[in-house]
């Protein structure tokens, strides 16, 4: 059932004393973490239910910002489930089957194209006019007249800006929200930008430049695809590749126990060619005996079968090539 923001706000108000599981997509990102932690200021009996793990980049940003949190991978003991920043069960990785079976009410709060469902226990607020789920949560908190502390305002800023493709996907309302939150957080945009780029030190920059230099580059019509191995966290190199001109990028990092993959895409390549990186990562993750997921333009995967990464990357390149070139 699709619901309005007024109905959504009332449902959250009625749930204040309930045990609530706030569920993320696979590899939780800044938009989920900011939304869930901020909403937990009102839903004080809530928990963050993550099917696998939090993105390494987001872990670092939250640590630098002084934001503490705990997570679980359980939803069984909750009275209510709220899915944040994801609008389908399959995107919730290891929690997908349990979500499909449960008879508990599920509220979906998201800003991506809606998925149709006629489940009687499903209440969906899906509004693409919002840049991020964090924007939605900020508006709900205002409707609930919640006093937002400086640290939470800073967290909301992290979620909004992180999901806006460096503000390229922003609307006038996004900038209004950012302005309000900068005042509440008693900060400025330069400090926020520095926080979001915390991990890019001189040595990492040099390593990323070398990784991009060694990467393969393919021109697909008028779209540039970059891919290869990263000697630092893959998301750092994938992000940098997009910033310097790639339309699609995918990089992987090999660790002692796993291989980690990050893919990025410049909007509106996703809508122009019907590409959803999160779905591709989810489908290919079995090759590396792992899990994956994410959004149309930003997604990741990880797994224990490191020797499968070559097949993984080649299949990804084939999918993107067919999508763009036809």
Write a structural description:
- The protein has helices at residues 5-14, 30-39, 56-65, 96-101, 133-143, 150-162, 172-185, 189-196, 202-214, 234-243, 269-273, 277-284, 309-325, and strands at 20-23, 46-49, 71-72, 80-84, 106-110, 122-126, 216-220, 223-229, 248-254, 259-265, 290-294, 298-303.
- It has 13 helices and twelve strands.
- The mean pLDDT is 91.
- Strand 7 and strand 8 form a beta hairpin.
- The chain folds into two domains: 5-195, inorganic pyrophosphatase (n-terminal core) (Alpha-Beta Complex); 202-325, Roll (Diaminopimelate Epimerase, Chain A, domain 1).
Topology, please?
Elements: H1 5-14, E1 20-23, H2 30-39, E2 46-49, H3 56-65, E3 71-72, E4 80-84, H4 96-101, E5 106-110, E6 122-126, H5 133-143, H6 150-162, H7 172-185, H8 189-196, H9 202-214, E7 216-220, E8 223-229, H10 234-243, E9 248-254, E10 259-265, H11 269-273, H12 277-284, E11 290-294, E12 298-303, H13 309-325
Parallel strand pairs: 1-2, 1-4, 2-3, 4-5, 5-6, 8-9
Antiparallel strand pairs: 7-8, 9-10, 10-12, 11-12
């Amino acid at each position: 059932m699709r619901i309005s923001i007024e109905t959504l706000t009332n449902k959250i108000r009625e749930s204040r004393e309930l045990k609530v599981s706030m569920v993320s997509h696979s590899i939780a990102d800044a938009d989920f973490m900011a939304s869930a932690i901020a909403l937990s200021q009102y839903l004080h009996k809530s928990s963050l239910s993550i099917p696998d793990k939090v993105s390494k980049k987001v872990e670092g940003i939250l640590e630098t910002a002084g934001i503490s949190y705990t997570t679980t991978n359980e939803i069984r003991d909750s009275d209510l489930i709220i899915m944040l920043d994801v609008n389908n069960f399959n995107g919730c990785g290891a929690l997908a089957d349990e979500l499909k079976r449960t008879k508990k009410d599920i509220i979906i709060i998201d800003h991506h194209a809606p998925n149709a469902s006629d489940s009687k226990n499903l209440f969906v607020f899906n509004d693409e006019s919002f840049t991020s789920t964090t924007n939605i949560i900020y508006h709900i908190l205002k409707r609930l007249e919640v006093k937002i502390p400086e640290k939470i305002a800073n967290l909301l800023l992290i979620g909004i800006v992180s999901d806006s493709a460096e503000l390229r996907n922003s609307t006038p309302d996004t900038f209004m929200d950012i302005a309000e939150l900068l005042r509440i957080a008693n900060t400025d945009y330069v400090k926020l930008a520095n926080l979001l780029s915390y991990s890019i030190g001189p040595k990492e920059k040099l390593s990323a430049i070398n990784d991009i230099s060694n990467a393969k580059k393919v021109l697909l019509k008028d779209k540039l695809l970059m891919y290869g191995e990263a000697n630092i966290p893959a998301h750092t190199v994938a992000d940098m590749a997009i910033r310097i001109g790639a339309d699609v990028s995918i990089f992987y990092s090999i660790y002692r126990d796993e291989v980690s993959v990050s893919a990025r895409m410049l909007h509106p390549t996703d809508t122009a060619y019907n590409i959803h990186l999160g779905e591709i990562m989810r489908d290919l993750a079995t090759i590396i005996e792992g899990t994956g997921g994410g959004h149309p333009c930003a997604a990741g995967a990880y797994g224990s079968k490191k020797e499968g990464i070559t097949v993984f990357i080649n299949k990804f390149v084939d999918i993107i090539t067919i999508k763009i070139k036809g």
